[in-house]
Inverse folding.
């Protein structure tokens, strides 16, 4: 019996590769296993190699594994491109239809199973993926019943006979494989899982659910990889809660429309990736100077320009912190797990309203699209705080022709906020520098007063934000502190025990509040380590630069990866060893 | 009942004496009073340029945004609170150059706002460059040898894009302009009111006198039916777009808001945003 393994299914894009992985992992999630998936796909719809690599474990394992136990192949290309990942004793199950061959030197055990033929005999070749799921399950020792509820949900609308046939396809796949492989393979039987019910979702699901739970009721957005799932979820759900999604003509419209709705009192967000964020930069400045709450999700992908649209990267960090001309107070939050993506999105709406600033929730492709098991989210942790938003009955009568002091200079820099429709709340809002009533003003005295007011709003944010840094500090005096952000958390966590077993003392910090940078919190960690190594998916070490700038420290080194793929635990292990 | 005076504030516009935009400001104030709203029920969103300052010159909620983006901001405001009367406004550069993409899409989206363009065929605040509404041969600082690009026929374009309300007026005719803005506000859907609003400082061709000579009032065309889309197109083409009055209206066209599933009559901004535990549990269960 084993307690974790890695399984991959591959074939041509558009061939049902995604659904094969989906059905396989949904069933295992329901048995209580922890799942972690990463999809390799291209910027096209039909054709081109695609694969879905899934980690199955009895404990949380939130990283793409170094190697592979089982490879399910729908074409020879899948074998040729992926066999090198297989462990010694690993298994390839290929569709007999393409007469799978083992590449030279490959020591894996190959089985040809007639996925297509069995499916055709049962009615349609479309079910070949179910046959493949069946063969995989036989190898893992998972019973066919485990798939019943998943198959029922997916095919319910197509009727009972379709459900039945698909279940039959799974069973036939199992039978065939058991007969074919008898006694000839190693142990792939999974230890029983804890049977607990967990959610199974991608980061974008968690963000969308967080937005809905956090009170967002309007989302203007423009489709883009890897952000579109957020708008797609909300298009389905918002109508039940009175809200809606508008697919805008571009990201400029998306961002400015969200500003309009927030100004008028509705929590509103937009979501995009680098190219869209580039178009939103001017509007982000408008949100900053007009002190209009705004939440933007940036799901980082390979840049610059169109870059690597379906690949992993963390190269928007500088752009998100510094982007927009001029100077505004802005918050950049970077959740590092799917769970955090949910809670942080809610927090983003709270901060946006409490501080009246734009808040960017930064994720990366691996976090946004990686599907994983998540402990059920807690309703009791959800708090909505609308800051200094006034109620009608709180507003004193205004003198005739007077405007409400929407931009009143206050000790904390935050002014009371009213929304259109409120009597005695009339004021002007402008992206031009303005006075306390929102009227344009070029006076130097006013400029300094308003600029200082806006900039001091975030003075206390790094302490107000719940856990700006995820800390795993095992040692008071560590040999090395590894720092990361976003999806690398699980990967670093997996590399640490290997480094520790070599006798190294390793601490780990994951930055969750990127801007304003939590200097003191990070300093308290770096002070306990001889060296600091920053792991990030970009070519120039952006997070490392920010740390050097903020901490004025010289012992900061980088481990960088910018080939479009997420880090593997072994890569972090090896590179840390090299640097030390 | 509010009067037009209630929509006045104490801010002195920084427009040049004689600017056509003064009348547009007055027409909006009168139209707002005429449709029976009070100042806090009106939101005026504007773009950047001389005309963009208009949101600061009306006693109402005003939002002076970014160049070319008054429409998406205004649509966001309206979606958040459909009880408000929302007017978007700006110049021809704002709406037909940098913001053209939004203009066409706001037309086809058909959210119930009124878009007033102060069209002076030139860039004023940047001191006299060509606009997408400048005629071929028009000499400006940026086209010293005369414009070699053709002028946009925005009224024709609006009708072709599916507009449900298209009107054009001249800032000298305060009565007609007020009436058209009023009708635009009352129209259930997107309403475009293009106003010839002369720039007395930089445009020495399209002057008040030039417009008086060249504009044709639709009221002088016998049998003109603003609900006849083909006739509207023909008349615009016959007159090189230089007509005033209600050019086209489709009273049956449903607004965007009326077609949104689950979208309530009550303002979204005044609805409770906290989920009940049962609602949350149901959403969570969908991922299990």
């Amino acid at each position: 019996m084993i307690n974790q393994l890695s399984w991959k299914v591959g074939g041509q894009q558009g061939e049902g590769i995604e659904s094969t992985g989906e059905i396989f992992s949904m069933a295992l999630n329901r048995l209580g296993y922890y799942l972690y998936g990463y999809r390799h796909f291209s910027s096209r719809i039909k054709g081109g190699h695609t694969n879905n690599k899934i980690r199955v474990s009895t404990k949380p394992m939130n990283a793409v594994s170094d190697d592979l136990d089982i490879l399910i192949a729908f074409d020879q290309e899948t074998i040729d491109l992926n066999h090198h990942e297989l462990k010694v004793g690993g298994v390839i199950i290929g569709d007999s239809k393409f007469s799978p061959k083992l590449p030279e030197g490959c020591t894996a055990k190959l089985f040809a199973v007639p996925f297509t033929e069995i499916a055709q005999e049962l009615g349609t070749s479309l079910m070949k993926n179910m046959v493949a799921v069946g063969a995989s399950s036989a190898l893992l020792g998972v019973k066919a019943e485990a798939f019943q509820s998943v198959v029922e949900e997916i095919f319910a609308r197509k009727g009972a006979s379709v459900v039945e046939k698909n279940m039959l396809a799974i069973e036939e796949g199992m039978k065939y494989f058991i007969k074919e492989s008898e006694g000839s393979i190693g142990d792939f039987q999974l230890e029983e899982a804890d049977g607990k019910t967990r959610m199974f979702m991608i980061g974008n699901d968690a963000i969308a659910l967080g937005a809905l739970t956090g009170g967002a009721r309007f989302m203007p957005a423009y489709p883009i990889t890897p952000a579109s799932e957020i708008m797609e979820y909300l298009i389905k759900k918002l109508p039940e809660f009175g809200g809606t999604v508008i697919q805008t003509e571009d990201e400029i419209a998306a961002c400015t429309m969200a500003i309009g709705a927030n100004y008028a009192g509705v929590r509103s967000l937009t979501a995009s990736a680098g190219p869209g964020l580039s178009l939103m930069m001017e509007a982000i400045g408008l949100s900053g100077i007009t002190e209009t709450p705004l939440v933007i999700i940036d799901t980082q992908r390979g840049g610059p320009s169109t870059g690597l649209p379906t690949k992993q990267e963390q190269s928007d960090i500088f752009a998100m912190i510094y982007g927009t001309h001029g100077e505004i107070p802005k918050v950049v939050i970077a959740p590092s797990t799917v769970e955090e993506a949910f809670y942080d999105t809610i927090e983003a709406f709270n901060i946006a309203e409490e501080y009246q600033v734009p808040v960017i929730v930064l994720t990366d492709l691996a976090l946004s699209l990686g599907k994983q098991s998540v402990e059920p989210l807690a309703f009791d942790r959800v708090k909505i705080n609308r800051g200094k938003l006034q109620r009608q009955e709180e507003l004193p009568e205004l003198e005739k022709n007077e405007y409400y002091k929407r931009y009143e200079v206050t000790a904390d820099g935050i002014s009371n906020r009213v929304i259109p429709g409120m009597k005695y709340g009339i004021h002007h809002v402008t992206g031009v520098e303005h006075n306390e009533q929102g009227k344009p003003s070029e006076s130097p005295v006013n400029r300094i007063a308003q600029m200082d007011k806006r900039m001091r709003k975030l003075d206390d944010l790094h302490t107000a934000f719940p856990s700006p840094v995820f800390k795993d500090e095992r040692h008071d005096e560590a040999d090395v502190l590894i720092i990361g952000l976003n999806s690398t958390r699980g990967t670093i966590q997996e590399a640490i025990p290997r480094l520790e077993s070599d006798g190294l003392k390793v601490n780990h910090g994951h930055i969750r509040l990127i801007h304003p940078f939590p200097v003191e919190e990070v300093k308290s960690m770096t002070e306990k380590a001889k060296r600091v190594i920053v792991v990030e998916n970009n070519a120039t070490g952006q997070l490392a630069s920010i740390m050097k700038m903020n901490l004025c420290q010289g012992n900061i080194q980088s481990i960088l990866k910018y080939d479009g793929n997420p880090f593997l635990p072994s890569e972090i292990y090896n590179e840390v060893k090299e640097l030390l | 009942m509010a009067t037009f005076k209630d929509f006045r504030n104490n801010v002195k516009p920084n427009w040049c004496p004689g600017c056509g935009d003064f009348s547009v400001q007055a027409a909006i104030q009168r139209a707002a009073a005429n449709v029976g709203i009070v100042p806090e029920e009106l939101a005026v969103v504007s773009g950047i340029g001389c005309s963009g300052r208009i949101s600061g010159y009306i006693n109402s909620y005003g939002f002076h945004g970014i160049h070319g983006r008054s429409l998406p901001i205004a649509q966001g405001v309206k979606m958040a609170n459909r009880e408000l009367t929302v007017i978007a406004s700006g110049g021809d550069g704002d709406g037909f150059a940098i913001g053209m993409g939004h203009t066409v899409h706001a037309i086809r989206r058909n959210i119930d706002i009124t878009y007033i363009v102060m069209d002076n065929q030139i860039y004023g605040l940047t001191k006299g460059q060509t606009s997408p509404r400048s005629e071929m041969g028009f000499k400006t600082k940026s086209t010293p040898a005369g414009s070699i690009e053709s002028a946009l026929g925005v009224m024709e374009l609006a009708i072709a894009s599916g507009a449900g309300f298209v009107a054009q007026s001249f800032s000298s005719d305060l009565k007609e302009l007020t009436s058209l803005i009023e009708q635009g506000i009352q129209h259930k859907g997107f309403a475009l009111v293009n106003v010839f609003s002369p720039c007395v400082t930089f445009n020495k061709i399209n002057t008040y006198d030039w417009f008086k000579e060249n504009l044709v009032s639709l009221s002088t065309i016998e049998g003109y039916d603003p609900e006849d889309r083909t006739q509207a197109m023909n008349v615009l083409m016959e007159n090189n777009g230089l007509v005033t009055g209600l050019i086209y209206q489709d009273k049956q066209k449903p607004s965007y808001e009326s077609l949104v599933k689950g979208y309530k009559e009550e303002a979204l901004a005044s609805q409770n945003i906290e989920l009940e535990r049962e609602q949350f549990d149901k959403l969570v269960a969908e991922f299990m």
User: Anything to note?
Assistant: Chain B has one domain: 4-285. Chain B touches chain A through 60 residues (CB under 8 Å). The two ends of chain B are 56 Å apart (CA to CA).
